[in-house]
Amino acid sequence: MTMTTSLDLFGDDDTAQSGREAIGPQSFVLRGFALPFAEALLQGVDTVAAQSPFRRMQTPGGYTMSVALTNCGQWGWTTDAHGYRYTRIDPLSGLPWPDLPSAFLELAQAAAAGAGFPGFAPDACLVNQYEPGSRLSLHQDKNERDYGAPIVSVSLGMPALFLFGGHERSDKTVRVPLLHGDVVVWGGVDRLRYHGVMPMKDLPHPRLGSRRINFTLRKAGESAGPV
Ligand code: SIN
Ligand code: FE2
Fold first, then answer.
1. Residues 58-74: pLDDT tens digits?
2. Is pLDDT at 5 greater than 50 in this prediction?
3. 222: pLDDT confidence band, cut at 50, 70 and 90?
4. Which residues have CB less than 5 Å away from ligand 2 (the ion)?
5. What global pTM score does this model have?
6. Is 214 touching ligand 1 by the criterion CB < 6 Å?
7. Is the pLDDT confidence value at 112 over 50?
8. Which of helix, strand or coil describes residue 190?
9. 38-51 vs 102-114: helix axis angle to the nearest 10?
């Protein structure tokens, strides 16, 4: 006789039990997690961009990024001819980066906890804006001083194909479709995995049109580079 319990039904399928999809031992997609906060988050993005506008930065190799970026929080990620680093001051405005909107912080802490990283205390948030054709080549997030904290990545607007690889650039990648409201969290043994975004198709979103906003919350650390 077969007895079906919920445990038998779900087996070790993490998705069925918790609504989160595992893409690594300590990496999860939380589908629609940000949807209830979307309006507050978009207001936060507008407030940040009013003070520190989106801009396309140069890489040390002299390439102009197709993604436009800004930051909020104590530390902001920047790149120019001299390299990648975190700064306290926005080089464009000459002022400190805008405060982290409270909705960003609350969402990030809840998402991190849901992915097994309680007590996340981000001090940096990189906000990326994608247009059709924008892409982000495979990279590791490794300018932070504290790899003990996860990365929390929130997607709004147009859908994207997120690439999630391994610890070597040449490792195989999986393509993860990310929709408005999806949140990805990676940390622990997965903290330094390569990731990127495929060239964006023009699939306009009802609220954001031909734009995708992604913001990633990080713990850059107290001594995260020159001021
Ligand atoms: C990033 O790696 O900074 C952004 C990832 C994304 O846009 O989904
Ligand atoms: Fe990244």
1. 999 999 999 999 999 99
2. no
3. low
4. 141
5. 0.91
6. yes
7. yes
8. helix
9. 130
Instruction: Kindly list the distances between the CA atom of residue 224 and the CA atoms of 99, 105, 144, 147, in Å, as whole numbers in the listed order.
Output: 17, 19, 6, 12
Question: Quick one: DSSP state of residue 44?
Answer: H
Ligand 1 pocket: which of 195, 208, 217 to mutate (most atoms within 8 A of CB): 195
State whether the beta carbon of 194 lies less than 6 angstroms from ligand 1: no
Helices (H) and strands (E) in the chain, counts: 4, 13
Mean model confidence pLDDT for the chain:
91
Nearest CA to ligand 1 atom 6: 214
Q: What is the pLDDT of residue 19?
A: 76
Q: Which atom of ligand 1 is nearest to the CA of 162?
A: 8
CB 140 within 8 A of CB 193: yes
Tell me whether residue 11 is exposed, middle or buried, using C-beta atoms within 10 angstroms of its C-beta: 0 to 12, 13 to 18, 19 or more. exposed
Taking residues 195-199, what's their average pLDDT? 98
Ligand nearest to the CA of residue 196, numbered in listed order: 1
Side-chain-side CA neighbours of 194 within 13 Å: the count stands at 15
Non-local (6+) Cβ contacts of 170 within 8 A are none
Q: Which two tokens stand for residue 204?
A: 């306009």
126 lines ligand 1 (CB under 6 A): yes
E strands along the chain, which residues?
20-24, 27-30, 68-72, 76-80, 83-87, 124-130, 136-139, 151-157, 160-164, 174-178, 183-186, 195-197, 212-218
Confidence (pLDDT) at 18: 60
